[in-house]
Write a structure and sequence with these properties.
Helices cover about 5% and strands about 20% of the residues. The protein is built from one helix and ten strands; from the N terminus they run E-E-E-E-E-E-E-E-E-E-H. A hairpin with a 2-residue loop joins strand 2 (about 30) and strand 3 (about 35).
């Protein structure tokens, strides 16, 4: 069982020079706490009113990385990075028996927002397996202090050989 992991390999979180997370769904940094980055889901709002990042990208063909969380200005801590993007294009069967992960990164310190999940897009003839595929938004380390969690990413599996896929027994 193998692993493909692009956790925290997406767009960067906010920093002192630029407190808002990077990307189309970057979480905002405001006053003391940062908001979560958005992607497939909206990023969480911070207690200080910093807005979470918006949704973006394709649900049926997701290829974009996740956006960064907003900086926690109270502690000058960096927002979490977004999850990266995985694209697998195969003519035959793809079988996942390990793990494919594109999770967002944690917000650092006591007040930074979490990064949003990235993308996993698998285009294949047939698909099977007992493994896992995840593109979770990551929570800020100290979310109870009022920081925003990152929104979830996007996952799509498109198989092109419908007759062969129907003949596969579920695993």
């Amino acid at each position: 069982a193998g692993k493909i992991g692009v956790n925290g390999k997406g767009l960067p979180g906010g920093v002192l020079a630029s407190p808002h997370g990077s990307g189309p769904g970057g979480g905002r940094g405001k006053l003391n706490t940062g908001a979560g980055g958005g992607h497939g889901g909206v990023g969480g709002k911070s207690v200080a009113g910093a807005l979470g990042g918006v949704t973006y990208g394709s649900a049926s063909e997701p290829t974009l990385p996740g956006s960064g969380g907003g900086m926690g200005t109270w502690t000058n801590m960096k927002g979490g990075e977004g999850g990266g993007a995985v694209f697998i294009d195969a003519r035959g069967q793809v079988s996942v028996v390990g793990a494919i992960t594109a999770n967002g990164g944690d917000g650092f310190g006591g007040a930074a927002g979490g990064g949003s999940g990235g993308s996993v897009y698998i285009h294949c003839g047939t698909f099977s397996g007992t493994g896992s595929i995840k593109a979770n938004g990551n929570p800020a380390v100290f979310a109870p202090q009022g920081t925003g969690n990152g929104g979830g990413g996007r996952i799509a599996v498109v198989f092109t050989n419908l007759a062969a896929q129907a003949a596969l027994s579920p695993t």
